[in-house]
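Q: What residues go here?
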């Protein structure tokens, strides 16, 4: 057993050893990056998945030689917990700024990203948004903010246009829609966009129902669904509520012609498909998804599963966002915040597994970003739209 005296002596020796340059010269300084997600609270599962994606990317970047233009400097993650609230997210930005981070990646939820990007802007701190889909995040003129993935306007437009194609090809069996959404910026904004888009394609939005986060009982909402009897149910909610809503529908034997998600928190989740295969079967989702034709997608998926985790959109979106940032630091040849922002503005990063092409930020939004349409089939998730990424033909409607 180590005594306190031995520990102090050992620690002092280690500290003094580190004070001298190693053979071959001093090691380059690390590049501090803030990794900020809601790893506790109602969004903890998604936040933990995001964090894992960021740490895997940092591991890969460091293994490949770190930031070569900075002498092989390794990326050092400063982990922050937004505790599933915007206020806690902003407080973490203050701490990260004090700690001298060069940039931040995060913070998953739209409402949290809205707060963290604003807080980071005060310090000209580059903030790469990994998921947060609310378009307000990149529409406030913040020069420090860059979002790699598509926003909810683009996702809603793609989803409704594709719904119309599928419905028309099937002889237009679906005419009425019910939207069920969570109450924060993400769900409310998505529902508003859908309510605006759907009537133009001839769909009647029968009802829009909002619910709190967290919600532990969907019985009343599903009873209402029974009486409205919509052809299509469109949920827009985070993982826990999405899974519970669809399971409650299954328990109450509510079977619309389609469950057609837009940014559904569980719809294209391997976790959901594994845990509730019957409830998940046939669900269509318009969401963040990897390029299934890129063999590196399968390799990363295998690595994630080897850790006992699911390969969810949170993992691969944050993984790739960290790679985008590392590429910018490499080109900036500096840890200076303004230099990194300038490099992000000029990004053409294309070495990724997303169906995007080269990155091109305009006012902070990656213009090439697009969602894919997936469908749960035979216990797996497959791409159905667009055709160049299609793995199976879509089944629509599920119930004739």
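A:
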């Amino acid at each position: 057993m180590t005594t306190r005296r031995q520990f102090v002596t050992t620690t002092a020796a280690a500290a003094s050893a580190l004070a001298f340059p190693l053979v071959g010269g001093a090691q380059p300084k690390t590049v501090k990056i803030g990794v900020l997600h809601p790893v506790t609270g109602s969004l903890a599962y998604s936040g933990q998945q995001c964090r894992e994606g960021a740490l895997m990317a940092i591991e890969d970047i460091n293994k490949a030689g770190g930031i070569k233009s900075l002498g092989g400097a390794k990326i050092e993650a400063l982990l922050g917990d937004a505790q599933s609230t915007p206020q806690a997210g902003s407080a973490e930005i203050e701490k990260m700024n004090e700690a001298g981070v060069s940039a931040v990646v995060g913070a998953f939820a739209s409402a949290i990203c809205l707060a963290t990007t604003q807080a980071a802007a005060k310090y000209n701190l580059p903030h790469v948004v990994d998921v947060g889909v609310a378009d307000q995040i990149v529409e406030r003129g913040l020069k420090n903010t860059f979002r790699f993935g598509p926003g909810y306007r683009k996702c809603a437009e793609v989803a409704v246009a594709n719904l119309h194609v599928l419905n028309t090809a099937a002889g237009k069996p679906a005419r009425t829609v019910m939207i069920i959404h969570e109450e924060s910026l993400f769900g409310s904004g998505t529902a508003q966009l859908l309510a605006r888009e759907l009537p133009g394609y001839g769909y009647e939005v029968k009802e829009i129902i909002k619910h709190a986060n967290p919600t532990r009982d969907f019985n009343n909402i599903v009873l209402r669904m029974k009486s409205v009897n919509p052809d299509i149910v469109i949920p827009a909610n985070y993982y826990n509520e999405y899974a519970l809503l669809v399971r409650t529908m299954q328990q109450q034997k509510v079977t619309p012609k389609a469950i057609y998600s837009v940014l559904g928190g569980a719809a294209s989740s391997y976790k959901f498909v594994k845990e509730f295969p019957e409830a998940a079967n046939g669900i269509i989702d318009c969401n963040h998804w990897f390029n299934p034709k890129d063999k590196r997608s399968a390799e990363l998926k295998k690595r994630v599963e080897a850790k006992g985790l699911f390969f969810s959109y949170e993992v691969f979106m944050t993984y790739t966002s960290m790679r985008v940032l590392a590429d910018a630091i490499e080109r900036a040849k500096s840890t200076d915040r303004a230099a990194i922002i300038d490099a992000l503005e000029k990004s053409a990063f294309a070495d990724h597994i997303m169906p995007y092409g080269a990155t091109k930020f305009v006012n902070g939004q990656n213009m090439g970003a697009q969602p894919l349409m997936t469908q749960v089939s035979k216990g797996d998730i497959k791409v159905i739209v667009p055709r160049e990424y299609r793995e199976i033909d879509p089944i629509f409607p599920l119930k004739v």
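A: Context that may help when evaluating the design: The chain has two domains: 31-150+293-369, 153-287+373-389. Residues 44-63 form the longest helix (20 residues).
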